[in-house]
Write a structure and sequence with these properties.
With about 375 residues, this protein is mainly β. The chain has one helix spanning about 45-50; strands spanning about 5-10, 20-25, 30-35, 55, 60, 70, 75-80, 95, 105, 115, 120-125, 130-135, 140-145, 155-160, 160, 165-170, 170-175, 180, 185-190, 195-200, 200-205, 220, 225, 230-235, 240, 245, 250-255, 260, 265-270, 280, 295, 335-340, 355-365. The longest helix has 7 residues, at about 45-50.
């Protein structure tokens, strides 16, 4: 378990107003940036002044970037979370589309990590980028397909929600664990290498469950939910092992490609809602409803006894230590250690400013 420890000095209390504040932690010092309407700072400016290996903590709410953002140094950027159930006080951290530009991670930003942020702009992971991780994030669009240039290498997604799929292109050494993939699935070229997709949930309103596939790509312990089909054809390369397919009608799996598949199970999809015989609650196949959908297997369901690779249950709620879906997908839990007013004369203030020292730690994993 990893912790960030930081100290705040001189807390400004503004009666009757609430400010969105971005905190930057750099070399043991905290820097604060106030967003409109009470301040004039913006996220693009904070990123530009950050030093390599700084941590940037974003508040809940909409963080308007004002400009396209390029990550050109290794940074850790942490939001409040993406699920309403996990952010009842702060609100979800949302980075909307910027005009002009988008959110780009350059090769010089290798080593960066992102936690608890909903990206509504396109995320582009650039040529030559290595060792990037996303944990408990939500994406409208993300692509690991630079052209031309050296493809991204070593990108990790954990407990993320892809609203419109994921484009891997020719990336190398990519892992997608305990994620929700909707609408367009995961696409890759046959030249992609060492792609691992495990413990995920795929939601598709059609048969486009698996698009493309590299010879050494592996699909393990996933749940595929397809509403408008009773047949899935593995017409691609790779390994498909111990996945659960919930299909409408009489489910059928075939293999007309070169995929190696073993241990997979097919079951009828059944009705939507809490009456589904295999899943706790499914409101729709077209999209994942954060407030309703629960894809945990029912104890009495047909697939409850299915054991996947490693002895794990299929789906996002099981898997290797540190990977299973965290309740409410909360990325950042502060634990306040001390809150002490500075000075002995507590009845004296300076223009409404109360000087305090706050020491805290934050659970990041």
């Amino acid at each position: 378990m990893r912790y960030l420890v930081f100290t705040f000095i001189s807390l400004f209390l503004i009666q009757g107003t609430t400010a969105q504040v971005i905190t930057r932690l750099s070399g043991g010092t905290s820097y604060f940036y106030y967003l409109p309407p009470l301040g004039t700072d913006n996220l693009a400016g904070v990123v530009s002044v950050a030093a390599p290996n700084d941590t940037i903590i974003l508040p809940g709410g909409i963080i308007t970037p004002h400009y396209g953002i390029s990550i050109t140094k290794p940074l850790t950027i942490v939001g409040a979370g993406t699920f309403p159930s996990g952010t009842p006080v702060t609100g979800r951290t949302v980075i909307p589309s910027a005009n002009p530009g988008s959110f780009a991670i350059d090769a010089t930003g290798s080593g960066s990590s992102f936690h608890g942020i909903s990206f509504e702009d396109n995320i582009g992971v650039g040529a030559g980028t290595t060792n990037i991780s996303f944990t408990r994030c939500e994406f409208s669009s993300i692509s690991l397909a630079p052209n031309p240039g050296t493809d991204p290498n070593g990108v990790q997604f954990k407990q993320c929600n892809f609203r419109f799929g994921l484009v891997l292109g020719e990336s190398q050494n990519v892992s997608v664990d305990n994620c929700i993939i909707q609408t367009s699935g995961i696409s890759m070229y046959s030249t992609a290498s060492n792609i691992s997709i495990s413990q995920c949930i795929y939601l598709f309103p059609n048969t486009n469950a698996l698009t493309g596939g590299a010879p050494n790509a592996t699909w393990m312990n996933n749940i595929f939910v397809l509403e408008n089909t009773s047949a899935v054809d593995f017409s691609f390369a790779g390994t498909v092992q111990s996945n659960l397919f919930a299909l409408s009608g009489t489910p059928v799996l075939t293999n007309t490609g070169t995929a190696l598949y073993t241990g997979n199970q097919v079951i009828p999809l059944g009705p939507l809602g809490a009456s589904n015989p295999n899943f706790m609650n499914i409101s729709s196949i077209d999209a994942f409803n954060m407030n309703v959908d629960d894809y945990q297997l029912k104890p009495t369901g047909q697939a409850n006894t299915m054991t996947g690779v490693g002895g794990y249950k299929v789906g996002i709620f099981s898997g290797a230590p540190g990977n299973p879906w965290k309740p409410n997908a909360i990325p950042f839990n502060p634990l306040w250690v001390d809150l002490l007013p500075s000075g002995l004369n507590l009845g004296t203030t300076n223009g409404g400013t109360v000087n305090v020292t706050i020491q805290g730690a934050a659970q990041q994993n």
